[in-house]
Amino acid sequence: MPLIIIIALLTLLKYLEVGFLNGLSWWWIIGLAAFAFLWFEFLERMLGLDKRKDQAYFEKMKKDRLKRSFEKKK
Predict the structure, then answer these.
(1) Which of 28, 2, 1 is nearest to 13 (CA)?
(2) H helices of 1-74, where?
(3) Residue 50 pLDDT exceeds 80
(4) Res. 58: pLDDT tops 90
(5) What is the torsional sign of CA 19, 20, 22, 27?
């Protein structure tokens, strides 16, 4: 997510011609956006990072549910 924010910020600053981005080519920003697309669509899935996030989320839900059920019995 931080990568998407950086791309949006760079695009806005380049469009407004602010600071050092005035001399920067649009290809750098397009290249960064292409890298982000490849990362989120292909590389993250191949490395299994999307599954780890899901598993961690469901594991936390499971622990919270168990904790609540034992608290009710007391």
Answers:
(1) 28
(2) 2-15, 26-38, 44-47, 49-73
(3) no
(4) no
(5) negative
Contact between 26 and 14 under an 8 Å Cβ cutoff? The reply is: yes
Chain centroid, CA 18 distance in Å: 26
In which band, very low, low, confident or very high, does the pLDDT at 24 lie, cut at 50, 70 and 90? confident
**Model confidence pTM above 0.70:** no
Residues with Cβ within 8 Å of residue 56, at least 6 apart in sequence:
none
Q: How far apart are CA 6 and CA 50, in angstroms?
A: 21
Give CA–CA dist 12/29, Å, rounded.
Answer: 11
